[in-house]
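User: I would dearly like some help making sense of a protein record. I have put the entry right below:
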Amino acid sequence: MPTYPWRQAPAGLATRRQLRARGLRPGGRDPVAQIVCRRGQRVAYLYDIDAALPVRPMTPARAAALDRAMAARQTCPDCGIRYPYCLPLRTLGTCPLCADGYATAA
């Protein structure tokens, strides 16, 4: 796989984030090159822009599935309150208020 230093990749190649900003996705294709940065500690894969496909549109079913997945990450299992951010369920197991022992009304 061709490897390029930081900011030295040829035109026509983009990372996943750069593809997404253009409304594209890799489409199941393998990366065609890579960029090495931070003295070889970081690698970013590059995809061919011409072979990229458009992003699939958001359907009502996909939006509902995404909302259910986010609700699982944003809802406290103790008090049942849904917060507008993801809770630290791996470390605390609950919302910060329940972890500190404050009583919350559900």
User: Anything to note?
Assistant: The longest strand covers residues 42-48. The chain is about 25% helix and 20% strand. The chain has a mean pLDDT of 91. The chain has two domains: 3-54, 60-100.
